[in-house]
Amino acid sequence: MVVFKFLFFFLSVVTLHANSLIIDSKSTYYDLLPHSKIYIDKSKKLSLSQVQSKSNEFQDNDKKLLGYGYSPDFNVWVKFTLTNNSNNELEKVLEYDHALTTNIKFFYSDSNNKYIQDGLLNVNPKRKTLNPMFKIKLKPYETRTYYIQSSSQITTLIVKLNLWSTDLFYTKDTKHQFILALFFGAMVILGIYNIFIYFFTKDVSYLFYVLYIFGVVAHHLTYVGISSIYILDQTWMTLENKFASFVVAFPIISLALFCKSFLRTKQYPIFNNILNILLVLLPTILAFIMITDMFNKYRNMFSILLLMYLIILAIYASIKKNRQAYFILFGWTTIFTVFVFMYLSSSGIFNIYNYFPYIVELALLVEATIFSIALADRINQLQKDKTEANQKLITQQENEKQRLELQVENKTSDLKVALDEKGLLLKELNHRVKNNMQTIVSLISLQSDAIEDEQLQDIFLTAQNRIKAMSHLHELLYKQDSITNINAYDYFSILIEELKYSYDNDININFKIETQLKMEQAVYCGIIVNELVSNSFKYAFDNEEGNVHISLKKIDGNYVLCVSDDGKGYEPRESANSLGLILVETLATKQLRADIQIDSINGVRVSISWESDIASS
């Protein structure tokens, strides 16, 4: 009986050691999954003790990675046994090599159902490694069996277990985080660079491209486990996973909008209309799936369909010789190849990460760089087109300039001839008008010589002076080249000299002329000055000495003409019917539309003010 018990114990120990993985302090890494057994709990209700009772149903496994795809309806139980074959206590780190698995339980004791929980939705707050990890301690020559329960309600369920020496694990994880930091830094720099270009160019393609880059960064931060460790707390992680389909769809929608603008899909009406429909349908379908929880298994399939359509669109655009489509196809060929490998890896068919651990990051960075080059090429192409268009425009402008110069030269020559003829005609007209007025003055003078009545002679003299005032204006116009303005000083001087000769008295005339007069207003001013100075000569001084002041200036766009004397003045009521004053007031108010002020106390002072640009009637 004793021999039988010893034999049974011996066989049990041999069997246990045969199924266990023997570890020691010299080995730094073990691929644990091929040394494990797998059991699928489709009820998702079994406890550890219940699972242990089904030990016969555990299946042997020889794969390094198990991929179950989107599998929210069952739990995967992994059973493995470790044996410390040394006389020293061993401490190892068990790494669950998939950061997106939502729920992981590590049962470290057979007897009391103790476990440590981790996973995307149950992140250990003390953990600073990207993947879930658990510490294992084995005493000298100790053998222990461990169980892991994993499930994933939101993401694909992937099982891969690595057993590391503590130092090597943390060294590996630090290096891994550093490389990822370089990747994310490069992506963020690309995004910031392109958003600045958007601000300068206002090209909406850059804005959509920046949204795509940051969408990829946000998604990949979660994919590699950085968000759950460093960025989002558990509440936000739960919320993000609730909207996981939108997190996946956002960069793809941004990419679709980028392609729509970058490839100018409006030139392909049918493809453009289909793209518009897909851009409306995708968010609608995802919202429906999230609200109803129907077709949840296929929630990412619609984003993939949109991505496939974009590839077809890019192929069509490249066939149509769209230069930008070549860049997009090249970038997408890279990323699509990686997506295929990612699918094969998540399905457990082929683990690309064993050969190229950072193939996803490299592909995303290459694609983003290619798109940036494509945008830069677009700027160069647009600049080239702009330069060619500018050159054509310059050539056209030069030809048009030469044509216009020739036309202007011909027109100018014709206009100069016409102006010369007009000038000659105007000079001749002014000369003839002046001669005719001189003839009229001579006739009046001859007539007045035959009149003995002094009052009547005075009337004739006044008429002569009025006509001379207009005649002298035409004389000045005849002598000068410009007929727009008249030199007021020359004009008034000639008028006053003529008056002094007519009345032969000793009156001092003081001029203060500060501006010229417009031709159409000068004739009225000449008559007004003639009337006012004539009145001063005749009535102000009684053949005594005196002073007459004549000023003309321009203040704030208004002309101000002032004629004054220091004579004896007059009584306004006695001179109310004076023809000369009536003429002055009429010309001032009706023709010049001026304000007139008359002060007849202590001499006479007449001030007339009118706007410089007013049109005379």
Quick synopsis:
With 617 residues, this protein is an alpha+beta fold. Helix content is 56%, strand content 18%.
Features:
Immunoglobulin-like; 5-stranded mixed sheet; Heat Shock Protein 90; 617 residues; 18% strand; 3 domains; disordered N terminus; rod-shaped; alpha+beta
* Average predicted confidence as pLDDT: 80
Figure out the total of helices: 15
Total count of domains:
3
Number of strands: 20
- Residue windows where pLDDT falls under 50 for at least 5 positions: 1-18
- Radius of gyration, rounded? 54 Å
Shape: rod-shaped
Largest beta-sheet characterization:
7 strands, mixed
Structural class: alpha+beta
Strand content: 15-25%
Please describe what this structure looks like.
56% of the residues lie in helices and 18% in strands. The protein is an alpha+beta fold. Strands 1, 3, 4, 6, 8, 9 and 11 form a seven-stranded mixed β-sheet that branches. Strand 19 and strand 20 form a beta hairpin.
Spell out the blueprint of helices and strands.
Elements: H1 2-19, E1 21-23, E2 29-31, E3 37-41, H2 48-52, E4 59-60, E5 66-70, E6 75-84, E7 90-96, E8 103-107, E9 115-118, E10 133-138, E11 143-151, E12 156-159, E13 161-165, H3 166-201, H4 204-223, H5 226-231, H6 234-242, H7 244-262, H8 269-292, H9 301-319, H10 323-346, H11 359-449, H12 454-479, E14 485-486, H13 488-503, E15 507-513, E16 517-518, H14 519-540, E17 546-555, E18 558-565, H15 579-591, E19 595-599, E20 604-611
Parallel strand pairs: 1-6, 15-17
Antiparallel strand pairs: 2-13, 3-4, 3-6, 5-12, 6-11, 7-10, 7-13, 8-9, 8-11, 14-16, 17-18, 18-20, 19-20
